[in-house]
UniProtKB/TrEMBL annotation:
Entries under PANTHER family matching the protein: AT30094P (PTHR14969:SF13), SPHINGOSINE-1-PHOSPHATE PHOSPHOHYDROLASE (PTHR14969)
Chloroplast listed as a keyword: no
The organism's place on the tree of life at top rank: Bacteria
Name of this chain's protein: Phosphatase PAP2 family protein
Pfam families on file: PAP2
Gene3D superfamilies: Phosphatidic acid phosphatase type 2/haloperoxidase
Coiled-coil positions: none
Parts of the chain that traverse the membrane: 29-47, 67-85, 129-149, 161-178
Keywords: Membrane, Transmembrane, Transmembrane helix
InterPro entries from the UniProt entry: PAP2/HPO, PAP2/HPO_sf
C-alpha cells in the first residue's frame, strides 16, 4: 500500500472515529483469541487422552498421543520457520516509507514478511479445524480478520499477511492431515 493510498484510508477513518478506535482495539486484542484458545485445545485433547486410557483403549490412546504431539509440534515448527524466513527476507514495513503514518504506532524495523500474527493464527486455526471443525472455521475467520486488521493498522503490507496466512494454512494442513 502506498503512503498516499493509506493516507486516504486514515483520513476517511478520522471521519469515523468509532470505526477507527474499533480497528485499533481489535488489532490489539483479537490476536489474543487464538493464543488463549490454543492451551484450551491442548487441555481438551489431554482430557480426551486420559479418558481413553481410563477406558482401556491403550492402542488408540497411544495413537492419539502422537496426534497431540503433532498439535504441539506443527504450530511450533511453523512459528520457528516463519521467524527464520522473515529474518532472512527482512522486508521493510509499510511505515518505513516516507510519509506513511500507521494507525498503530510501532518502531520495529524490517522483518515484515511473513506476518507472524497471520501465520500463527492460521496454523492454530488449522489445528483446531483438525479436531473440532466448527471451532476451526471460527478460528480461521478470526485469522482472516487479524490479517485485515494488520493491514488496516498500517503495520503490514497485504503481501505480508497473505504470505503469513498461506504459510500457516499450508503448514497446518501438511502437518495435521498429511503426516
Amino acid at each position: 500500500m502506498t503512503p498516499e493510498r493509506y493516507k486516504k484510508l486514515t483520513d476517511w477513518l478520522e471521519g469515523h472515529p468509532a470505526l477507527r478506535e474499533g480497528i485499533i482495539l481489535l488489532n490489539r486484542w483479537l490476536p489474543l483469541v487464538p493464543f488463549v484458545c490454543y492451551p484450551a485445545l491442548l487441555l481438551l485433547l489431554n482430557l480426551r487422552w486420559f479418558a481413553m486410557l481410563r477406558v482401556g483403549r491403550g492402542g488408540g490412546a497411544l495413537d492419539f498421543m502422537q496426534v497431540i504431539a503433532r498439535a504441539i509440534l506443527v504450530p511450533g515448527l511453523a512459528f520457528w520457520m516463519g521467524t527464520l524466513l522473515r529474518a532472512r527476507l527482512n522486508f521493510p514495513r509499510p511505515y518505513e516509507q516516507p510519509g506513511f503514518v500507521p494507525l498503530v504506532p510501532k518502531s520495529t524495523r524490517g522483518n515484515s514478511c511473513p506476518s507472524r500474527h497471520a501465520l500463527s493464527a492460521a496454523v492454530l486455526g488449522m489445528v483446531w479445524l483438525y479436531f473440532y471443525p466448527a471451532v476451526g472455521v471460527g478460528m480461521l475467520t478470526i485469522a482472516a480478520l487479524i490479517c485485515l486488521l494488520r493491514v488496516l493498522s498500517g503495520v503490514h503490507f497485504i503481501r505480508d499477511v497473505l504470505a503469513g496466512a498461506a504459510f500457516g494454512l499450508v503448514f497446518g494442513f501438511a502437518g495435521m492431515w498429511l503426516l
